[in-house]
Amino acid sequence: MPQRHTLIAKEGWSPIFSFVLLAFLLQYYFGFFVAIPTGVVVLVLLFLFRDPRRDIPATPLGIVAPMDSTVVAIEKIMDPYLEADTLRIQLRGRAWGVFTVRSPMEGKVNKQWFNAVMNDIKPSVPVSDEYFAQWVQSDEGDNVILALAPRFYKKMPLCSVHSGERIGQGQRCGFIPFGANSTVYIPANSHVEVRVGDELTGGSSIIALLVRAH
User: Fold this and answer.
1) In DSSP terms, which residues pair with 73 in a beta bridge?
2) How many angstroms separate the Cα of 191 from the Cα of each of 11, 61, 135, 142, 195?
3) Which is it for the CA torsion 64, 68, 71, 75, positive or negative?
């Protein structure tokens, strides 16, 4: 089912409305100039919670960037979540990028890990500060893990899709205030489409292509 899109992330509606109301009350009782600082806060919140529409690429085998980010590392490694050989693409979130999180691939959400670095998994390699991870499996059995480490907001990422649900390529699946660094674990035989240093747009930039055996 298509998601209803709003230009402001729903996670920001409550704080924005609260400050708009406060600004109105300050202007009504104390005058325009007293309300100016609160009005500035409203503008800052509108910027932080912006959620522009993104064009999802018409590439069924494509794996897209989960957030606005920069590629910092690409390497073959043992997936710490599924214990399988994978390619790991590490992405650094942009400080002033859009903070919406999008699914790298279409499929079923098989499992989610919360506070991944502290739970009972015993990774073959460190997961560093990954607070949240989501396992998506395609209808053909391809496995992709998206792991997130909030940069400044050290609380659980807000997630709107749960285990057992289907999710679309580039579909909005959460929001992390002030951004996050992300790691995408993809099948080892995937064809990587990016290089270290590339700037990516969440939900639109293809980072890799799945390879099907003929």
Assistant:
1) 90
2) 35, 10, 20, 13, 12
3) negative
* CATH for 97: 2.70.70.10
**Is residue 104 a part of any domain in this protein?**
yes
Sorted by sequence, the CB contacts under 8 Å of residue 25 that are 6+ apart come out as none
Is the pLDDT score of 198 beyond 90?
Answer: yes
Alpha carbons 65 and 181: distance in angstroms, whole number: 12
Task: Classify residue 104 as exposed, middle or buried by CB count within 10 Å of its CB (0-12, 13-18, 19+).
Answer: buried
- Lowest mean pLDDT, pick from 30-34, 86-90, 92-96: 92-96
What is the pLDDT at residue 155? 60
- Is residue 173, in this structure, part of any structural domain at all? yes
Domain membership of residue 85 (yes or no) is: yes
| Dihedral of alpha carbons 132, 207, 161, 139, sign | negative
pTM: 0.85
Beta strand pairing call for 107-114 and 166-167:
antiparallel
Per-residue pLDDT at 81: 87
